[in-house]
Amino acid sequence: MKIGDVEFENPLALAPMAGISDAPFRQLCARLGANMTPTEMITADVMLWGSDKTRYRLRNRDNGLPRIIQIAGYDSEMLSDAAARAEQLGAAIIDINMGCPAKKVCRRLAGSSLLKDPPLVRRITERVVASVTVPVTLKIRTGWCPESRNGVQIARIAEASGIAAVTVHGRTRECRFSGDAEYETIREIKNAVDIPVLANGDVDSPEKARDVLNYTCADGIMIGRAARGRPWIFSEIKKLFAKDDQNTSSLHLLSVRDIILNHLDGLYSFYGESTGVRIGRKHLSWYAQNQDGADVFRDRVVRVETAREQLELTRDFGSFFSREASTARVRSGRERGGEDDQQKKNQDQKEKKSGSSVSRYGGSEQAA
Ligand SMILES: Cc1cc2nc3c(=O)[nH]c(=O)nc-3n(C[C@H](O)[C@H](O)[C@H](O)COP(=O)(O)O)c2cc1C
To answer: What is the arithmetic mean of pLDDT over 236-246?
Structure first.
């Protein structure tokens, strides 16, 4: 797949997830087969780029892939400044977030609330495209609410403005994460534009990735929540696509334990021990989901404070982590929706207290 003049070996993208898809996680997913690994959303307000949160979000770890920086905001001038700055920092692609349903973001008419205002979408996309020399992509939802699924109109505006690809999460802004993602609108969008379209929403198995690609005719697939605790989903999909049952690559043989230990090492070296351990706990809980004995493991892992103890515990429990148990973790969109809605409520409360602006999903990073 090609986005502008940037070529990708396979059409698998890790979704930007604030508080989750940080540089160590992107590096891990890239190693396990993801080919596009955008950053978590970065506020378009460059005055905030010196804050610890944004500095970490912008800090890169070379994962051998073109660097994709996602920006979020509501003002075309701020977004174009941010895009130019991101290009200077080495972005090979700039992604504009118009998919985020955050209340804070939406009150300021950013994220998915921009979909309500197509002329503004045009101004933003034209201006951002004009401010950089690299390809600009757009991430949207199917529309504002089920009665106003204007994804096709937005994608056409994007294409006419010079946007090089569009990713569509198969829910409206109003749906947030509830219900199941629908792929009909993604299929219509794919039909309506010539630029590459990536399908996103509720893809949680290789078979579903194949089915969604077949149904929507999309050029690529983006996976978010299903990669938490199961980053090897990308290698599983690659394997299915290659129809390669005899895959004996060392990657395939890597044990879950080795993948987790490697992830933890990446977190410690990226954030330092204290934050690395805190973020490690959150990922370990995801890795432990659906594994026998998960409760015992979780009870113990939340108590440890040092990298040494966290690694030891993970090694001790190593044999209990299996890919099969993670694969069994196919839960309905409705169930996941509930979980993420709760996460969102917690985050909204935190934001109210802290008065922060373009920060919606970041809750989970503090919740580690
Ligand atoms: C915790 C969390 C954080 C997210 N952060 C972002 C973000 O920073 N930028 C963005 O465009 N979408 C963000 N999303 C939306 C995802 O990129 C994706 O569109 C959504 O989760 C649906 O895909 P999935 O069903 O594969 O998870 C986030 C989602 C979650 C659950």
So the answer is: 80
270: left (phi over 0), alpha (psi -120 to 50) or beta: alpha
Amino acid at 190: K
Nearest CA to ligand 1 atom 10: 16
pTM for this structure? 0.87
Q: Where are the beta strands (DSSP E) in the chain?
A: 2-3, 6-7, 12-14, 42-43, 68-72, 93-98, 136-143, 165-172, 197-200, 220-223
Enumerate the active-site residues. 100
Residue 65: alpha-carbon gap to chain centroid: 15
Atom from ligand 1 closest to the CA of residue 333 = 25
What DSSP character marks residue 113?
G
Is the C-alpha dihedral spanning 161, 78, 3, 42 positive or negative?
A: negative
Architecture of the domain whose range is 256-320:
Orthogonal Bundle (1.10)
Tens digit of pLDDT for each residue in 149-180? Answer: 999 999 999 999 999 999 999 998 877 888 89
Map out the domains of the chain as residue ranges. Answer: 2-242, 256-320
The residues lining ligand 1, judged by C-beta closer than 6 Å to any ligand atom, are 15-20, 40-41, 70, 97, 99-100, 139, 169, 200-203, 223-226, 340, 361, 364
Candidates 212, 225, 340: which one to mutate for ligand 1, based on the most atoms within 8 Å of Cβ?
A: 225
What is the average pLDDT across 254-270?
91
Q: Report DSSP state, residue 187.
A: H
Class of the 2-242 domain?
alpha beta
Q: What is the mean pLDDT of residues 104-113?
A: 60
What residues form DSSP beta bridges with 200? 169, 222
What does the pLDDT look like over 26-52, one tens digit per residue? 999 999 999 999 999 999 999 999 999
**How much distance in Å is there from the Cα of 224 to the middle of ligand 1?**
6
- Ligand 1 centroid to residue 247 C-alpha, Å: 30
CA 140–ligand 1 middle distance (angstroms):
11
* Mean pLDDT within 290-308: 85
Q: Residue 141 pairs with which residues in a beta bridge?
A: 169
